[in-house]
Design a protein that fits this description.
The protein is of the alpha+beta class. It has helices at residues 4-23, 28-34, 37-44, 70-82, 97-102, 117-122, 167-174, 189-197, 208-217, 245-260, 263-270; strands at 46-51, 59-60, 67-68, 85-91, 108-114, 124-125, 130-139, 158-162, 179-183, 204-207, 222-224, 232-240, 278-279. It folds into two domains: 37-130 and 236-277, D-Maltodextrin-Binding Protein, domain 2, CATH 3.40.190; 131-233, D-Maltodextrin-Binding Protein, domain 2.
Length: 287
Amino acid sequence: MKTGPTLLAAILLSAVTAFAVVHLLPKSSAQAVQESTYEKIIRTGEIHCGYATWNPFFFVDPANGEKKGVFHDLMEEAGKRLGLKIIWQEEVGWGSVVEAVKSKRVDMSCSVYWLNPPRIKNLSSSFPQLYAPVYAFARQDEGRPFANLDDLNSDKYTVATIDGSAEGQVVTLRLDKAKKFTMPELNTDADEIEALLTGKADFIFLDNASAGTYMKANPGKIRSLFPDQPAVVFPNVMLMPPNEPQLKEMIDDIFRNIEYDGTLDSILTQYGMQSVLLRNPKPAFYH
C-alpha cells in the first residue's frame, strides 16, 4: 500500500486548517480576551467603578440614596473632563477589592483606599493627592493613663478592626499582644465606633476626617488618645488593575489637572475637609 502521498496530503490539510483558524476566522473572542481595561473604557465611553463606603470620602445619603463624598465628586469630575460616564457598579469590601479589580469585575475601585501589602502586591494605584494620618481613638470618658501607642499593646485591651482593612496592618505590626474584635469587611467606621461605644473594644483606629465627621454629629462620645502621635500616615488612592499603564497615566493626569486648577480645594471645602488631610506640595511657579 502506498501511504506517502496520503500522509503528505493530511499534513498539508492540517496546515491549511490551522492557518484558517488563526488568520481567517472571526477573532472577536480572542480580541475580547486581549482587550485592555483602558481600551474597553475608551471603546464604551464608560468607567465601571467599585466603591466602599467611608464617610466623608464616599457615602450614600440615607434620605435619597444619592452617592456623595470627596472621592465620589473627584471621580465624577474626572469623568466629565474626560468625556467618560462613571458607572457606580457595585460596593466591594475592603478585603475583596483586590479580587474585584484584578479579575476585572470592575474597571477600577473609585472610593478612597489605603495601601496595605496585599493591595500593593496585586494592584496598581492612583498617585495620591490626599494623605490621612491615622490615630487611636477611645471613649470620651477613657481615664486610663495611656502615654503612647505601646501602652495599648497588652492582652488587657481589645482593639476593633475590619477584615481586609489597611489599619489592620497597624494592629498586626504594632499591637500584636492586644485582643482583636474583628468585623466583616463590608462594615464601616461607624461600626467600629459602635463597637467602641458598646464596650466591645477599648480603642479603634480612625483618620481625623472620619472621626471629625462623627464627632461633629455626636459630640462628647469619642476622643483621640494621642492627638500629636499618628500611628501611621496612609496615602488616599483609587485602585486599578495591574499592568494597565495607559489607564493609570490617564487617571493620574486628570487628577493632577483637577488638583492644580483648584477644583479639588472646592470639593474638600464642600465637605469641610480643606484643613483635615495632608496635601502634596504646591507646584513651583517660575516668574
